[in-house]
């Protein structure tokens, strides 16, 4: 790749708008990324603006195109915006898979139904999602406390057989170390607290560092004019892509919550010992004061999460310095005090059985998460009922369903890892008691859930087979007069049938969420039954259930171990294999488009860098040259293109034409995020830009029609492109044409036709009058 050593000026003294005839085609690639050479079809490219993370490139011969517009009459100047390094450039990002529950709950925040005039209900929806995100942070840290404090140092180090098998715990074992200084139960807990505290600090560091690298990019300075309507979608608001204040505030709250969870785990057991009859009065008083301080600080954390939301109507440059700095430091100070309190000498105190309080903590978290999801479903139903949208997934219940998946992921990961570590520490199966009963039951959910999904996938496979039979006849109609080739027809029909399964995604999410909710309730009930009827009574009364539960628990534990091995293997491969890094990056291309509004520890939002980049480029180029611009986006690039177009001033949007291909704007984003990409939002975008054309294929599992009509023709969508371009061998295609699916739309002649059509509309030197706004609810415009 050939880069310029410095920025190449592209907007010096050029003809004014009344004389300029220059046109620009700004290409934005999709998921997985590509190179500027491939996008521009030229081995010699120059970076004209940007850095190694994201940049705009041109062919070397087009660098000074603005100074000679006469050479570009009848054709645009191609530019490529390359943003793939925002998601898949760094191999360490493979480890972000650990943050998957946080990313999923953040998605639920943006999936609310369309609502107008229901501000309080919308705020309540966001509040419930933020609280669900807070419980996930507490759950993750509590799981780390369970592994380090309970299983490792309380149970294993307190048992001779287990401590002798794991020599690294010897200095903490009262029997192996002959009652050494660190072998006291409270001091063991204080040492083990370093693990969950370090995990919390790591999450804080990653959130702060990724914010500095991604989300600190300021959007273009713009104030909406009196004639500008941004109510149809929040993506056009000036502060939408700048969440600095909210991320910093939530990061402080979640960091404090994590440290408070560790402090409570350290202090709860010695406080119980001091509270017994005849216990030390002074230590009992200190313990009660620490408990009051922990509860008070936890209330402040919850208040911070509940009180503040996003500020989108302006670019919020302020930071709550006193809150951001003092809240985590206060929690850290309480943790240190709890560690000193736990390490105080207590004659007669020994560790036996489970660490007190673990089962109650996980049970309370599971119950709170279930109640939050149910409340979120009620709020979503109220919003959907006010403005029904037939295309919205699950009748507006997409957000609650995804929030349930996030909670389920957190619970399954916590239970599975705890059970797996317990099995590893307790080689004989008799040395330690293992994790709390609830976590064991949560591990047993994994094989049951996989079995349900296997049955459901079998149903989807049958549906795909039936759809394939239907497509066999359709393929023959699409290629009339061609000699019959059964194998070729079957391949095309199979590709179309599999691509259509994307539209069954909402049903998959619904089944998974409902199953996890029921299984979670069953895990809570099973844990309670096991606790109340232990030992032989449980085996006699519930022999079949008990045996099935034990089998599922063991299988779930091994499945978690297998999943962890696969995760580590995939992560190691990503350090060496660029294709593996690109595959992992695709996951984040879809999942991290949205700002971190519900969870600060989610992977960073790349759009907070990409959207301002595109907006600045389009605004400065049109202002400097007065030229016309075709914004050309493929796949996820079309979503970035639409978001950037919304950020432009109306006068600039009128000089922009939009060309999308393989676009998930309506098929995925419009259905899953109706409040931001619903019919009203897409209709307003179509009305504001000069023209919009969309290309898609029936073999594309991601892209689809946008279902809008307008003055570019009968509809924004062109008829589905043929894929493959030709059925059999021809003089122009002597070799079999490939089935392209989601890629290589430029290979179809329709792409060049539609681009030329857009340029022809923009060819006039002064934009023509805008058509009158359409009435609300009408998705089209009058014909030109």
UniProtKB/TrEMBL annotation:
Alphabetic keyword roster: Membrane, Transmembrane, Transmembrane helix
Chain segments carrying region Disordered: 762-784
InterPro entries according to UniProt: AB_hydrolase_fold
Highest taxon in the source lineage: Bacteria
Keyword ATP-binding tagged: no
Membrane-spanning parts: 94-112, 124-144, 189-206, 252-273, 285-306, 327-344, 364-384, 396-418, 438-460, 506-527, 547-571
Full protein name: Integral membrane protein
Organism from which the protein derives: Streptomyces longisporus
Organism lineage string: Bacteria, Bacillati, Actinomycetota, Actinomycetes, Kitasatosporales
């Amino acid at each position: 790749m050939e880069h310029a050593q410095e920025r190449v000026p592209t907007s010096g003294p050029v003809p004014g708008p009344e004389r300029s005839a220059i046109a620009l085609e700004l290409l934005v690639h999709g998921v997985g990324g590509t190179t500027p050479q491939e996008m521009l079809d030229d081995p010699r490219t120059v970076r004209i603006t940007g850095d190694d993370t994201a940049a705009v490139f041109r062919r070397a011969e087009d660098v000074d195109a603005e100074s000679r517009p006469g050479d570009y009459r009848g054709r645009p100047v191609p530019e490529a915006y390359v943003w793939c390094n925002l998601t898949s450039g760094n191999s360490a990002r493979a480890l972000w898979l650990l943050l998957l529950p946080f990313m999923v709950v953040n998605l639920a925040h943006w999936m609310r139904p369309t609502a107008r005039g229901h501000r309080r209900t919308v705020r309540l929806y966001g509040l419930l999602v933020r609280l669900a995100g807070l419980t996930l942070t507490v759950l993750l840290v509590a799981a780390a406390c369970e592994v380090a404090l309970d299983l490792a140092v309380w149970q294993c180090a307190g048992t001779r057989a287990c401590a002798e098998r794991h020599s690294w715990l010897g200095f903490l074992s009262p029997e192996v170390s002959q009652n050494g200084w660190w072998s006291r139960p409270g001091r063991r807990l204080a040492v083990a607290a370093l693990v969950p505290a370090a995990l919390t600090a790591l999450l804080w560091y990653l959130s702060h560092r990724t914010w500095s690298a991604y989300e600190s990019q300021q959007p273009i300075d713009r104030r909406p004019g009196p004639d500008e309507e941004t109510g149809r979608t929040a993506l056009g608001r000036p502060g939408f892509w700048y969440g600095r204040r909210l991320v910093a505030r939530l990061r402080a709250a979640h960091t404090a919550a994590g440290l408070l969870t560790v402090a409570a785990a350290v202090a709860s057991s010695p406080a119980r010992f001091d509270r017994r009859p005849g216990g030390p009065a002074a230590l009992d008083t200190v313990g009660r004061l620490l408990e009051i301080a922990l509860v008070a600080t936890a209330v402040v954390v919850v208040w911070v999460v509940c009180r503040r939301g996003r500020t989108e109507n302006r670019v919020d440059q302020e930071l709550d310095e006193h809150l951001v700095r003092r809240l985590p430091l206060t929690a850290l100070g309480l943790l240190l005090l709890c560690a000193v309190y736990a390490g105080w000498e207590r004659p007669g105190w020994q560790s036996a059985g489970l660490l007190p309080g673990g089962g109650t903590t996980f049970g309370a978290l599971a119950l709170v998460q279930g109640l939050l999801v149910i409340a979120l479903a009620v709020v979503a139903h109220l919003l959907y009922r006010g403005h029904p949208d037939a295309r919205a997934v699950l009748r507006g219940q997409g957000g609650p369903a995804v929030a349930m998946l996030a909670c389920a992921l957190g619970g399954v990961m916590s239970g599975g890892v705890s059970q797996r570590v317990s099995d590893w520490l307790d080689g004989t199966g008799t040395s330690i008691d293992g994790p709390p009963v609830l976590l064991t039951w949560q591990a047993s959910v994994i094989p049951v859930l996989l079995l349900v999904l296997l049955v459901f996938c079998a149903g989807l496979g049958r549906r795909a087979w039936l759809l394939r039979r239907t497509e066999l006849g359709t393929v023959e109609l699409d290629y009339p007069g061609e000699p019959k080739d059964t194998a070729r027809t079957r391949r095309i029909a199979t590709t179309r049938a599999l691509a259509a399964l994307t539209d069954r995604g909402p049903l998959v999410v619904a089944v998974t969420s409902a199953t996890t909710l029921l299984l979670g309730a069953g895990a809570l009930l099973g844990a309670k039954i096991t606790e109340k009827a232990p030992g032989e009574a449980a085996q006699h009364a519930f022999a079949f259930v008990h045996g099935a539960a034990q089998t599922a628990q063991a299988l779930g534990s091994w499945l978690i171990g297998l999943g962890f091995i696969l995760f580590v293997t995939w992560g190691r491969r990503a350090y060496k294999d660029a294709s593996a890094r690109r595959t992992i990056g695709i996951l984040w291309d879809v999942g991290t488009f949205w700002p971190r509004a519900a969870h600060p520890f989610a992977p960073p939002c790349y759009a907070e860098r990409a959207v301002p980049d595109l907006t600045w480029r389009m605004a400065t180029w049109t202002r400097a040259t007065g030229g016309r611009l075709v914004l050309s986006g493929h796949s996820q690039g079309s979503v970035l293109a639409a978001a950037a177009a919304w950020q432009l001033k109306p006068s600039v949007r009128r000089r922009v034409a939009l060309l999308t291909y393989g676009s998930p704007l309506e098929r995925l984003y419009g259905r899953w995020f109706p409040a931001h990409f619903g019919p009203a939002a897409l209709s307003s975008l179509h009305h504001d830009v000069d023209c919009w054309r969309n290309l898609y294929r029936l073999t594309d599992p991601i892209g689809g029609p946008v279902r809008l009509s307008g003055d570019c023709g009968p509809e924004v969508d062109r008829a589905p492109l043929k894929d493959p371009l030709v059925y059999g061998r021809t003089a122009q295609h002597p070799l079999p044409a490939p089935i392209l699916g989601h890629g290589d739309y430029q290979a179809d002649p329709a792409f060049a036709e539609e681009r030329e059509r857009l340029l022809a509309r923009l060819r006039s030197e002064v934009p023509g009058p805008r058509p009158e706004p359409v009435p609300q609810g009408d998705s089209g415009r009058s014909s030109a």
